[in-house]
């Protein structure tokens, strides 16, 4: 429990440390600062975890690359091989084109192509693993508190109290009103989604390892979460829900011979996960980008003139702190909104009988 | 553009990680917490209800107590009043009895006194009679010591008896 308390404290203190540590992100190349490259290198996934640079030494965490290619079958190797050579076993990291930054191999015509399956444990994947472990520790640790306790015992304080407060807020304020009478079934799922996104967002704001990765700002991660909601909505939707999609209460000529309304409804079903994905991913991506842009002001202006740079550093630090605080808010809001929209979609898949007559 | 293209590997790992996290938390995490929260909420609601009922019961009891006190006070008053009345009664009776006794005693005393007075008078009268007879005897003896005088006295007595007869005849 003490450990969890420290983690929470760290998360709360991060706006203070953010500006300082984030500025260590991009080495000492004061001469030609390519802000776009710095930002894209950060927000994009990578095969190794660049932690910091001390002088000329890059401190990186090499990560395993797992590939399945029609040429070689399953291949597993460390990303550190690319430190010494450009190519390994016919695989290399593309430097330009469609697959920039990704592992590619050459096909028979000498064109770059992706291996059939790329299950590498990239920075984002490892980050997700760390966050998953942390989340399990936090929630199961909280749940452990309740063991050997009766409802008549006094309510928890400290970290467990905070967790309980947040859980009550999400359940009573978001899930219950939006899902409706069958909400109980969905509580664990929606709470998992909420805490997963919230914790990931917070970890993304931590400037150094094991945080700092742009996880929820990655479209694949947001899409995966949205797909989970999609499953929860459509697999557990009731009869009424499917009737409203395929045979809604509209004049028959809207349904036959051209199934106009069913098509529109189906498009609606398919669009929902994308609405969730884009909202989450774009918000977090924008946050990370803005933070890095503010930090980069220091290096850009320093390259121009030392005095302007010195003055702008103050401005930059101020804005970075401001953005960090804002992002702290956004971290919560996006988790909240994702959970709320998921609840709304699930609620729509549970229409009560004879209620929605037009 | 690659920012907007989902990556299959990443998608796979994320779904896997989320699935595992969800499974673990579904088994050991959130239901434990939410059920406990619900149980506590129910407990608090019940406790509140019970407290309210207890308060009402206490109010009832208080009212009953007040009633009892009031009743007791009235009973006390009544008893006091009865006691006062009884005391008055007893005192009155005692006084009456005492008066009657006194009167009786006085009457007795008066009668006794009267009796004694009468007795005394009778005794005096008897004594007086005796003295008178004795005196008369002595006088008579002295008077009748001379023969002439005896004769005169007898004659005088006879006259008197004669006058007495005459007087009674004329009547």
Sum up the structure in keywords.
heterodimer, A: 358 residues, alpha+beta, 2 domains, four-stranded antiparallel beta sheet, three-stranded antiparallel beta sheet, 10 helices, 11% strand, globular, B: 171 residues, mainly alpha, rod-shaped
Short structural description:
The complex is a heterodimer of chains A (358) and B (171). With 358 residues, chain A is an alpha+beta fold. Chain A has 10 helices and 9 strands.
Molecular structure report:
The complex is a heterodimer of chains A (358) and B (171). Helix content of chain A is 59%, strand content 11%. Chain A is an alpha+beta fold and 358 residues long. Chain A folds into two domains: 64-120, no CATH class; 123-348, no CATH class. A four-stranded antiparallel beta sheet of chain A has the order 5-6-7-8, with no helix packed on it. Chain A has a three-stranded antiparallel beta sheet with strand order 4-3-9, with no helix packed on it. Chain B is mainly α and 171 residues long. Chain B has a domain at 29-125. Chain B has helices at residues 8-143, 147-170. The longest helix of chain B is centred in the middle third of the chain and has 136 residues, at 8-143. The radius of gyration of chain B is 66 Å and the shape is rod-shaped. The termini of chain B are far apart. The chains are: A alpha+beta (358), B mainly alpha (171). The A-B interface holds A 43-45, 66, 98-102, 117-122, 124-125, 128-129, 132, 135-136, 139-140, 142-143, 146-147, 149, 151-152, 155, 163-164, 167-168, 171, 187-189, 191-192, 196, 218-221, 223-225, 227-228, 285 and B 1-15, 17-18, 20-22, 24-26, 28-34, 36-37, 39-40, 42-43.
């Amino acid at each position: 429990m003490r450990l969890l308390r420290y983690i929470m404290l760290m998360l709360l203190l991060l706006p203070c440390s953010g500006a300082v540590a984030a500025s260590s992100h991009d080495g000492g190349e004061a001469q030609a600062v390519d802000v776009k490259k710095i930002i894209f290198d950060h927000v994009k996934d990578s095969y190794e975890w660049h932690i910091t640079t001390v002088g000329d030494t890059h401190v990186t965490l090499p990560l395993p690359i797992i590939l399945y290619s029609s040429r070689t079958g399953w291949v597993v190797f460390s990303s550190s091989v690319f430190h010494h050579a450009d190519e390994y076993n016919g695989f290399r990291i593309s430097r330009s084109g469609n697959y920039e930054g990704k592992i590619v191999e050459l096909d028979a015509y000498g064109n770059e192509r992706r291996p059939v399956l790329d299950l590498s444990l990239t920075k984002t994947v490892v980050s997700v693993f760390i966050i998953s472990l942390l989340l399990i520790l936090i929630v199961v640790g909280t749940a452990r508190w309740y063991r050997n306790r009766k409802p008549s015992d006094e309510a928890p304080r400290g970290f467990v109290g905070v967790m309980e407060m947040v859980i009550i807020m999400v359940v009573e304020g978001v899930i219950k009103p939006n899902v409706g009478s069958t909400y109980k079934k969905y509580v664990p799922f929606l709470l998992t989604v909420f805490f997963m996104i919230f914790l990931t967002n917070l970890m993304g704001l931590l400037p150094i390892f094991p945080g700092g990765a742009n996880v929820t700002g990655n479209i694949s991660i947001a899409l995966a979460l949205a797909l989970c909601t999609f499953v929860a909505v459509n697999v557990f939707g009731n009869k009424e829900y499917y009737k409203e999609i395929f045979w809604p209460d509209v004049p028959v000529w809207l349904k036959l011979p051209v199934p106009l309304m069913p098509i529109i409804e189906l498009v609606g079903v398919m669009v929902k996960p994308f609405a969730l994905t884009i909202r989450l991913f774009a918000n977090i991506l924008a946050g990370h980008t803005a933070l890095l842009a503010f930090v980069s002001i220091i290096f850009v202006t320093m390259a121009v003139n030392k005095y302007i740079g010195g003055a702008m550093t103050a401005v930059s630090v101020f804005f970075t702190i401001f953005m960090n605080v804002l992002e702290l808010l956004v971290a919560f809001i996006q988790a909240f909104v994702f959970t709320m929209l998921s609840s709304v979609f699930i609620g729509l898949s549970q229409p009560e009988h004879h209620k929605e007559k037009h | 553009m690659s920012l907007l293209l989902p990556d299959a590997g990443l998608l796979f790992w994320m779904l896997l990680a989320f699935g595992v996290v969800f499974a673990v938390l579904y088994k050991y995490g959130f239901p434990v917490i939410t059920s406990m929260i619900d149980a506590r909420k129910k407990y608090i609601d019940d406790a509140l209800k019970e407290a309210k009922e207890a308060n009402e019961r206490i109010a009832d009891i208080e009212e009953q107590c007040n009633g009892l006190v009031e009743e007791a006070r009235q009973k006390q008053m009544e008893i006091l009043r009865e006691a006062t009345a009884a005391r008055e009664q007893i005192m009155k009776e005692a006084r009456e009895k005492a008066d009657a006794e006194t009167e009786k005693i006085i009457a007795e005393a008066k009668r006794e006194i009267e009796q004694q007075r009468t007795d005394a008078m009778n005794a005096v009268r008897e004594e007086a009679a005796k003295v008178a007879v004795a005196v008369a005897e002595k006088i008579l003896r002295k008077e009748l010591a001379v023969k002439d005088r005896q004769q005169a006295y007898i004659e005088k007595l006879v006259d008197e008896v004669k006058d007495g007869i005459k007087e009674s005849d004329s009547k």
